[in-house]
Amino acid sequence: MFKTISNIWKVADLRTRILFTLFVLLVYRIGTFIPVPGVDAEVLKQANEMSQNIFGLLNTFSGGALFQFSIFAIGITPYITSSIIVQLLSMDVIPKFSEWQKEGEVGKKKLAQITRYGTVVLALVQGFATAIGFNRMYTSQMIPNASFVDYLIVAIILTAGTSFLMWLGEQITEKGIGNGISVIIFAAIVSGIPTMIQTIVEDQFIAADNVLWNIGKMVLILLVAIGIVIGVIFIQQGIRKIPVQYAKRVVGRKMYGGQSTHIPMKVNGAGVIPVIFASALISFPMTIAGFWQGAGWANWIMENLNMSKPLGMVLFVLLIIGFTFFYTFVQINPVQMADQMKKNGGYIPGIRPGKPTSSYLTRVLTRLTLTGAVFLALISVLPVFLGAIAGLPDSVQLGGTSLLIVVGVALDTMKQIETQLIKRHYKGFINK
Q1: Is the N end or the C end of the chain the one with fewer CB atoms within 10 Å?
Q2: CA atoms within 13 Å, Cβ hemisphere of 432
Q3: What's the whole-model pTM score?
Q4: If DSSP codes are grouped into helix, strand and coil, which group holds residue 111?
């Protein structure tokens, strides 16, 4: 491994990409500590006393910026929501979007532009609601004697922060290493680990009566976490190879085709995207309800849609499974794959070309996706049970969601580094 790390710094292009990514992440972390102008910094200290069950996940995804009400307070969540909406509308809801999706790289750029516009609109709405909601939640107003113009200024600043984060993510994707948005979320989650460890130590060891019992619980949780990481890697790396045979063709005096290859279908072709999507959607009604605490409907939502409650957990699991199927079949279209194979003279041994091939690919992909979706759902809710059994404080966001995102993004980034090294005849992390 140390030799591989040294090889990374020998490749100028790869070294530049990694340093650029680290620089962008440094800019992002600095931005999380810059408060919104006009906000009373003393009142922000009350954020630590807010219900972690309501805003904990959003604060985790923003790298702690939400509870500090910095310029990145609403994070990259509007971009994720906008992406969900655009992808749903591309499923034959808006014909123009469906047409663009089939145009390849040109169509993807058009949809990406629509996603950016949607991000700005959603960020403005969410920023305005967040400013009003947070100001009403405190005994002392966060924005003293706030008027509509004051709320609008705060909303514009938060929108600018989200737009800047979106731009940073695109720069990482283009000039750095990994998927930019995922890397930013990864950095946000990892930045909260030291605080979480400090909270666990103070609650379970310093202020605890039975320290030995708590040590046993923490060791058990650590072993389970290691097992979860191993399971995530196993599923993320798991593929099924479908054999494909290409018929021989004679063109002029040359013979083409006749070779055998395979189609690699991943057990979890959607990666961690379904978990991010599901987390964003399940937390949205909780966030809105948090701004109207005391109302009957708001109290019901906060009580029942919490992921630690049965209804919230069931909805979270269903959303993960649904988004896994949706995103996988958006990325892999069995009908187009079968048509492409037929045009190139390829076929799966024992399966007729055309519709039988697409039906076969659909069955295989459905079974694989179901396995991956159930696994993602189980991993996402398992740490919730562990936290409840161990009696960890609410401020500790021990969630499988964060663990899945961290491991998944690390694997994807490692694969990109692997590809860059192999291109230049260096051994990577996976190669032996």
Answers
A1: C
A2: 0
A3: 0.75
A4: helix
